[in-house]
Design brief:
Structural class: alpha/beta
Shape: globular
Strand order of the largest sheet: 1-9-8-5-4-2-3
Largest sheet: 7 strands, mixed
Strand content: 5-15%
Helix content: 40-55%
CATH architecture of the largest domain: 3-Layer(aba) Sandwich
Number of strands: 11
């Protein structure tokens, strides 16, 4: 990854853990961080755990990328950092954001969990920020691990020390569960026991959400916020779907991750081919710039929930939904609201994240179900 990005890279047990390390290093507690409202709620809680105030940005409704031009000057002047999302692999406007951050003298941090193969401005996503975090559980399907990449290689020692101070010791039970998980999942799915597979994942702490967003638990969250910056009080939120997010990896994780990473380029080529087919469909909405090897392709569907149900009947699971936007989910008690929330609401309601590796099956189901493409977004107060 150092060769791929041209940056010093530090292994971390998860992207969320690496982001916490980066936020604590580059941002003083009490600062305000611009971020996307269409994002995993875990990332929202990581920002809060670092003692920071999330500020929700307006979005481009075509692909969910940050709309830097729609951020008011008054908001820019109050920021301590900018955190990109690169949702599903669609790049945020990193060159523009880099220039903004340089003018303001604040750090740019890139969350590239979905974007390990994406490029913007002729460079890889993750090569613009002071730091960037990647997830190896996405494109590689390693189900564990990530890395923190930094612009200044002299910082590696300090960041490695900060990482090690926060790591929990490796556990034999955790390593055994990780080693056995692929076989357990393959077995129950091979028998078409989808419900059993999901129950197995819940037992392993890999899937805990009953709804798209986890319960906020505002009273408990206020107490945790009062103790920030600290990771411990936020464990009930940050560990959701990944209880091993801060556990030091053992040999099984390293071996499997390294083997899968060796095949990354083949995986990216397959994602790129599937992305092209999905974007060429009636539900595709190509963003600016070249087609990327997206982790998920956000098809824009009029009745997204009916489309999900149709896919489920064919045993195609839809994940990585982020609805409602974070400002609607958390309210102004915990975040600064977006100055223009309507595009994010529209995108969150209509985006159907489609796995490029299943492009042909997904398109066949959508055609047979009569799913209609979503009409253009309306920028009204209700977001509808």
């Amino acid at each position: 990854m150092r060769d791929r990005l041209g940056r010093e890279c530090l292994y971390v047990p998860s992207c969320r853990f690496g982001l916490y390390v980066a936020l604590r290093h580059w941002c003083r507690p009490g600062g305000r961080v611009l971020m996307s409202p269409v994002n995993d709620d875990v990332i929202f809680f990581v920002v809060l755990a670092a003692g920071l105030r999330p500020v929700q940005a307006p979005l481009d409704p075509r692909d969910g990328s940050l709309d830097a031009a729609a951020v008011p000057e008054s908001v820019w002047r109050g920021l301590s950092a900018v955190l990109t999302t690169n949702l599903y692999g669609n790049p945020d406007p990193a060159p523009e954001l880099r220039a903004r951050c340089d003018a303001l003298g604040i750090p740019l941090l890139e969350d590239a969990a979905h974007a390990i193969g994406s490029r913007v401005g002729g460079r890889p996503v993750g090569s613009y920020g002071d730091a960037s975090v990647f997830s190896l559980s996405k494109h590689t399907a390693a189900k564990t691990g990530g890395f923190l990449a930094v612009a200044d290689p002299a910082l590696r020692g300090a960041l490695e020390e900060a990482r090690d101070d926060l790591l929990a010791p490796s556990r034999l039970t955790s390593e055994l569960a990780y080693a056995l998980r692929p076989y357990a999942e393959a077995g129950v799915r091979g028998l078409r026991l989808v419900r059993a597979a999901r129950a197995t994942m819940r037992i392993l702490g890999m899937e805990e959400r009953e709804e798209i967003r986890m319960p906020l638990r505002a009273g408990e969250l206020k107490q945790a916020v009062s103790a920030a910056p600290a990771l411990g009080p936020f464990h009930p939120w940050v560990r959701v779907d990944m209880h091993d997010y801060r556990i030091a990896p053992g040999r099984a994780r390293y071996r499997r991750t390294a083997g899968l990473l060796d095949r990354l380029d083949d995986r990216l080529a397959a994602h790129l081919a599937g992305t092209r087919r999905l974007l060429d469909s009636p539900w595709g909405a190509p963003g600016a710039g070249p087609v990327q090897p997206l982790f998920r392709v956000p098809l824009l569907v009029a009745d997204r929930d009916s489309a999900i149900a149709a896919l489920a009947r064919h045993r195609i699971t839809t994940g990585y939904l982020y609805d409602p936007p974070l400002d609607d989910y958390a309210s102004e008690v915990f975040t600064d609201l977006s100055p223009d929330p309507a595009p994010a609401r529209w995108f969150a309601r209509h985006a159907l994240p489609a796995n490029p590796l299943e492009a042909d099956r997904i398109l066949a189901v959508l055609r047979a179900s009569g799913a209609r493409p979503a009409e253009g977004p309306h920028r009204d107060a209700a977001g509808g």
